[in-house]
Design a protein that fits this description.
Radius of gyration: 16 Å
Shape: globular
Number of helices: 2
Distance between the termini: 20 Å
CATH class: Alpha Beta
CATH superfamily: Lrp/AsnC effector binding domain/regulation of amino acid metabolism (RAM) domain
Strand order of the largest sheet: 2-3-1-4
Oligomer: single chain
Number of strands: 4
CATH architecture: 2-Layer Sandwich
Helix content: 10-25%
Number of domains: 1
CATH topology: Alpha-Beta Plaits
Structural class: alpha+beta
Order of helices and strands: EHEEHE
Amino acid sequence: MALVDRAKIGLKAQVFAQVKLSAHGRANLDEFTAAIRDIPEILECYVLMGPVDFMLRIVADDIESYERLFFHRLSMLPGVQEINSTVALSEIKHTTALPVRSGDAAPG
């Protein structure tokens, strides 16, 4: 597997979107999660406890591209009540390395 620098391939905008659903039944959650799996710009999705239900990490060419994604896809997702987007100005740390300590590794 290769790691690609998103900025070098034109994905200059990185956005974190907090999503609140209007209802929390199993069908609503399943419908929402199935829909976000079909959006390639959403790189990560986490279920949260607290005032919002999901945190999404999204990449786009630029803010205008994110705006189109927001209005044409994200805001139309099933069950979405509210989306709060935060644009990342710069990236201080990004790694895929896990902090595996001696003795923690699974037997191979």
